[in-house]
Design brief:
Number of strands: 13
Oligomer: single chain
Strand order of the largest sheet: 6-7-8-9-10-11-12-13
Structural class: alpha+beta
Strand content: 35-45%
Radius of gyration: 26 Å
Distance between the termini: 77 Å
């Protein structure tokens, strides 16, 4: 009897040892490359449930504009990931930003799942922002650059100013389309000129690397260089 049990155990061990692991699923083999920027997690109650009003948000970065079929792959991937990590989640949002544009708060695509319904929204304003971001040339890098040049961000309103070395720039309200301007500077005084809105005055603090805007509705806004 002992010999029979021993033989059975030996066979079982060999069978388990030789068992081949199932292959990895290949449904996401063509998943576009992305960089995970951050996750905004939903609040989970003490009993482990998630309110239907809570959002799970994935903020990702992609290198370039991609086709809608590829966006669907990203959407399905993050929906499955979110549902596995947060059982009972009702709202999953994926904000896909073009490279270098996330600070402006305007995603190229929002890939949403709300109450079982999937939706993909494209914002062409993000492409405009990408085009407006300065790509320095060899000649430009040899020129003396004004210290004002760069991107400035408000922690209070989440808006951004961009000043390019060719005296152009743009202002972006978080999630909105950019408003293009030209600019000039005299010491701490900065004047920006919009085609549609006219002139606006700003103050530049070179030591602190900030610009200050006087807003009628919000008071004094400080933008920090990024």
């Amino acid at each position: 009897m002992k010999k029979s049990l021993f033989a059975f155990a030996t066979l079982l061990f060999v069978a388990c040892g030789n068992k081949v692991a199932p292959p990895e699923p290949a449904e996401y083999i063509n998943l576009p490359e992305y960089k995970l920027l951050s996750i905004e997690e939903p609040r989970v109650s003490s009993n482990g449930s998630i309110s239907p009003s809570q959002n799970l948000v994935y903020n990702i970065e992609i290198d370039h504009v991609i086709e809608k079929d590829s966006l669907k792959l990203l959407q399905d991937y993050f929906i499955k990931k979110g549902e596995a990590d947060y059982v009972g989640i009702n709202k999953i949002i994926v904000r896909a930003y073009l490279k270098g544009t996330s600070i402006h708060g305007t995603p190229y695509a929002s890939l949403n799942l709300v109450a079982g319904k999937k939706e993909i929204m494209i914002n062409e304003g993000a492409e405009i922002i990408e085009e407006l971001l300065e790509k320095p040339s060899t000649d430009a890098s040899q020129e003396v650059t004004d210290p004002l040049v760069g991107t400035y961000y408000s922690n209070r309103t989440h808006d951004t100013y961009v000043f390019n070395s060719d005296k152009t720039g743009f202002f972006t309200i978080q999630g909105g389309n950019p408003s293009v301007f030209t600019w000039r500077r005299s010491r701490s005084n900065v004047t920006i000129i919009y085609k549609a809105f006219g002139e606006q005055k700003l103050k530049f603090d070179q030591r602190a690397m900030t610009i200050t805007e006087k807003s009628e509705s919000l008071g004094t806004l400080v933008f920090n260089k990024q």
